[in-house]
Design a protein that fits this description.
Elements: E1 11-22, H1 62-74, E2 82-83, E3 86-89, E4 99-102, E5 109-118, E6 121-134, E7 138-142, E8 145-149, E9 156-162, H2 169-186, E10 198-208, E11 218-223, H3 226-245, E12 253-258, E13 263-269, E14 279-280, E15 287-288, H4 291-299, H5 305-316, H6 320-328, H7 330-341, H8 348-370, H9 381-392, H10 398-411, H11 415-422, H12 431-444, H13 446-453, H14 459-470, H15 477-490
Parallel strand pairs: 11-12
Antiparallel strand pairs: 1-9, 1-10, 2-15, 3-4, 3-14, 5-6, 6-9, 7-8, 10-11, 12-13
The structure holds zinc ion.
Zinc ion (ZN) is lined by residues 28, 31, 33, 46-47, 49-50, 154.
Length: 494
Amino acid sequence: MAIDTPIDTDFEAVIGLEVHAQLLTKSKMFCSCSTDYAYAAPNTHVCPVCMGMPGVLPVINQQAVVYTIMTALALNCSIPEYSKFDRKNYPYPDLMKGYQISQYDIPLSRNGYLTIEHEGQTRRIGIHRVHLEEDTARLLHHDGYSLVDINRSGTPLMEIVSEPDIRSPGEARLYMQRLREILVYLGVSSGRMEEGSLRCDANISVRPRGQEKLGVKTEIKNMNSFRSVERALEYEKQRQITLVRSGKPIHQETRGWVETRGITVSQRSKEQAHDYRYFPEPDLPPLVISRAWVEELRTELPELPDARRIRYKAEYGLAEQEANVLTEDKALGDYFEQVMAASQVSDRRARAKATSNWLLSEVVRLLNANDISIQDCTLSPSALANLLDLLDKERITGKQAKEVLDEAFTSGEMPQVIVAKRGIKPPISDLGVLERIVEEVIANNSKAAHDYRAGKTNALQALVGQVMRQTRGQAKADIVQTLLKEKLSEIPPE
Ligand SMILES: [Zn+2]
C-alpha cells in the first residue's frame, strides 16, 4: 500500500526565540556591586544582596529599567502604566537565593515587532514581551567537583521573547542579527554572543505546510553564535520531520546543541519541568511608569539601524549592499560618518561612494590583517578624508594611495605628511610626456607588442608594467592602458 508521505519541503518550521541580554549598567540589578567583573578573580564582585544572604533588601537599578523600556520602544512594544517584579522559585546551585527576581504577569512591555528582509520578502516578527530579571551565578565544573563564582549573580538581564512567527532557521539567524544590531545601537548591550552577554534559546516545531495546528515543540539551548542558532535549528527541524514521516512521536523536551558534533541531545523532559510558584516580590515596590517619562525616553532614542540604512541610500546615494554592510556594524558606520564630516567637498555623493569603497575594501583588509577593530584603529577618519582629498586633486595615483594608506594605518600620520616625507611627485598628467614613454616602451618590447596584436590580451599587462616602471608609478594605470591600446592599434599590420 502506498503511503502518502509528504516530502521535506512540504513541512514548515514554527520557531520562537527567547533572547537574554546582559545590560550595560555600571552596577548590578538590585545591589551596588560593579558589573565590571569580566576579568576579575572569582567572588570579588559580591555583597550580601547578590550572595542571597537572609535579611537583606534589594533596590531596583533605575538605569536597567530605562534600558529595558528603550529596547521595548525600539521594538515597537507598548509599555504598561504599572509593572512589578515577581519571584520565580527553583532550586539550583547557581541561584543564590533559591529564587530569581523576574517578571511574570505584568512585564515592562508587550506586543511589539521587528521587521526583517529575508529572501526578498519583508517579514514582521512579533515580539511577545520584553522584561527585566537578574542573572545567576556561574558554576565551573571540574573533575568530580564544581566551584561557584558569584560575580555574575544579580547582573541585570533583559529577556526578549518573540512570537512563534519565524518560519525557517535562516530567518531565525537574521532575526538574531537584527535584534543584536538594535541592542548595540541603543548602547544597552555589548551584543557579544561568544562571551555569553547575549544568549539565545529557541522553541521549534514542524507541521505540514498549510496546516493550522501546531506540532509538538522542543526547546533548544546552548547556542552561542548566529551560525550555531541556524545550524541547531536546521538539525532539529530535520530530526522532527524524520520522526513525523516515520510515524514516531516527538517528545516535548529541552534539548542541548552540541556544537562539536552538530547535533541536539535530550536534556530534560516535560515531566521534569519545574513549577516555579511565581508570586509578587514582597521586597520591591511596584513600578508606576508615567506616560510623560515614556515619551521622554522615546524622543531620546538614537537613530536605529533601519533608519540609518534608509538615510545612507537617500542622503549619500549608496547601493543597498553598501548601506547594509556599513550599518550592520555600528562602529564602522560611525567611522564612515566621521570621514564624511571631515570631508569639505562639493560632491558629497561621490565622496560617500569613494569613502565606502576605501573603507570596505582597503581599510577592512588592513583591520583584518592586523586583527584590530575599527574603534582601536590608529588611522583617524580625518586621515582617510585627507587621502581621498589627495586622490581627488590627482596629487597621487590609486597605487600610491594604497601604499600611503598602509603607512598611515601603522603610523597614524596624515597622508599629506607621508607624501611630502617620501618625496612622492604628482602623477604625470601631461599626455604628451606619457605618449612618448608609451611609444618608447612599445618600440623596446616588440615581442609583447606582437603578442598583444596577435590576440594575447595578457601581453598588455607586461607593457603597462613597463610604462609604470619608467614613470616610477607616477602615471595613472587606466590612462596608460588606454594610450597603449591606441598606439598598438595604430601600428600597420605586419
Ligand atoms: Zn552585590
